[in-house]
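User: I'm preparing a small set of examples for a lab meeting where we compare how different chains pack in three dimensions. I only have the primary sequence for this one, and I'd like the structure in token form so I can line it up with the others. Please keep the answer compact; I'll paste it straight into my notes.
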Amino acid sequence: MLQAVHPTIQQASGLQSLQDIDLNTPKVVVGVHPPQHSPEWAAWLYEIGFIPGETVMVLTRGMPGADPLVVRVGDSTFALRRAEAACIAVADATDGAFKAAA
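Assistant: Understood. Below is the structure token output for the 102-residue chain.
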């Protein structure tokens, strides 16, 4: 079952969730919008580098089911579950979307 994109990310023009971006496509973190059942994810994702303005990209997706995702944020590489990646809002690095949403 596909993880639903957080409503805040869906409503923001020009934003995508990290789980939906193409492989090896640099994006910029705009924000983290954790699900109601796991508000602690915001602090955890911030601590490992998912802060607004940081460059991020998905390097590969696990098989089967595209879970987990291997993600590079800054100079670090992590494995994230799709549910965790779904709450990370990203924008094109060259877009004005980052400045508008930050």
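A couple of notes for your slides: Confidence is low (pLDDT under 50) at residues 1-5, 97-102. The two ends are 31 Å apart (CA to CA).

User: Perfect, thanks.
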